[in-house]
Design goal:
Elements: E1 11-13, E2 28-31, E3 34-37, E4 45-50, E5 61-71, H1 72-75, E6 79-85, E7 88-96, E8 99-103, E9 108-111, E10 116-120, E11 125-131, E12 137-146, E13 157-161, E14 166-168, E15 171-177, E16 179-180, E17 183-184, E18 194-200, E19 205-209, E20 215-222, E21 225-227, E22 230-232, E23 237-240, E24 246-250, E25 257-264, E26 271-274, E27 277-279, H2 282-293, E28 322-323
Bound molecules: manganese (II) ion.
Length: 330
């Protein structure tokens, strides 16, 4: 996925101040999504919950787009031309449909429901993403992970993993990154991280043992949940501060509910995000943009995509306004 905003803001994302001691009452903040057109002739729309003014990072998770279920005959599906990334990993996770991925490593992969596809941008990579002609309904999430400073210039990589579903009382989990409820992903991350799809049975109350050093995000895909007692409607992202050892998800309805659970320790570094780049300074962003525009080897080339690559938007003229996660409420 590419950030295709024509005037993307440059965000300076603060080191989180969440160093709080364990508490009995989890603090949950409800974050709303904003609609962002993905571009193309019919402009499929995604719902973006990260980054936003109230929250820029959850652990190392720095970007969260949620889309569908969309009838692709109406929306046109996904067609994101080759574009660059630096300083991050991309995570594609589908609930329905199929996406053809091509990148400058030479990877040509199909992204399917229940299968993790994780691309490490490192110093530089480029890729394209196109929903396949067989796809009638497209439904999923695209997530980005900020790389820590010591690894942000790492080499390009691509990983594919199909997690075995884990059954607990009241829910089925697919742990695609990290560990939860006895499920563990073998896929390497550069900071401790959790990513899981959770489907709750009707009327289920599911306590999950979690790492108290982690903050968590619960993105509701289907139905409505209570997250540690806080109601969370579909498309919303509930941010749960660190310091708890049990996170309880509840489904009060008579239908199944589904969410994606994200987690990780608060990211200790300040990052700068602009367009499809994560850096540490404005100069990092200017250099990455110039390298893409110069067709530098840094990002390589995508073979097999029918069409032109995405040009970088113009850099902002205004002084960059630092943005940080707000201080925790008492
Ligand atoms: Mn992308």
């Amino acid at each position: 996925m590419s950030n295709v905003e024509t005037r993307p803001a440059e965000l300076r994302c603060g080191a989180s101040p969440d160093g709080t001691a364990p508490t009995r009452t989890p603090r949950v903040e409800v974050l709303q999504a904003r609609d962002v057109p993905l571009g193309g002739p019919r402009a499929m729309t995604v719902r973006r919950t990260l980054p936003q003014r109230a929250r820029t990072l959850i652990g190392a998770w720095c970007f969260a787009d949620h889309y569908g279920p969309d009838d692709v005959t109406r929306t046109g599906g996904m067609d994101v031309a080759p574009h660059p990334h630096t300083g991050l990993q991309t995570v594609s996770w589908l609930f329905g449909g199929e996406i053809e991925h091509r990148d400058s490593l030479g990877t040509h992969a199909l992204v399917r429901p229940g299968e993790l596809n994780l691309m490490t941008g490192g110093h530089g990579i480029s890729h394209s993403e196109v929903s396949t002609p067989q796809t009638t309904v497209l439904h999923g999430v695209q997530l980005w992970v900020a790389l820590p400073g010591e690894h942000r210039a790492t080499g390009r990589a691509f990983a594919h993993h199909v997690p075995r579903p884990v059954r607990v009382d009241g829910a089925e989990l697919r742990v695609f990154l990290g560990s939860l409820a006895g499920g563990t992903s073998p896929v390497r991350t550069f900071t401790p991280l959790l990513g899981a799809e959770i489907t709750l049975d009707p009327r289920a109350v599911v306590p999950l043992a979690v790492d108290p050093a982690f903050e968590h995000g619960v993105l509701v895909d289907r139905g409505e949940l209570r997250v540690a007692g806080t109601p969370l409607q579909r498309t919303r992202l509930g941010h749960v501060h660190p310091g708890i050892t049990t996170l309880t998800l509840a489904n009060d309805s008579g239908e199944p509910a589904r969410a994606v659970l994200l987690g990780g320790p608060p990211f200790p570094e300040e990052i700068v995000m602009w367009w499809n780049f994560v850096g540490r300074s404005h100069e990092d962003i200017v250099r990455a943009r110039a390298d893409w525009e110069a067709h530098s080897d840094r990002f390589g080339a995508v073979r097999g995509y029918a069409g032109d690559r995405l040009p970088a938007p113009a850099l902002p003229h205004v002084t960059i306004t630092p943005r940080r996660n707000p201080p925790p409420r008492p």
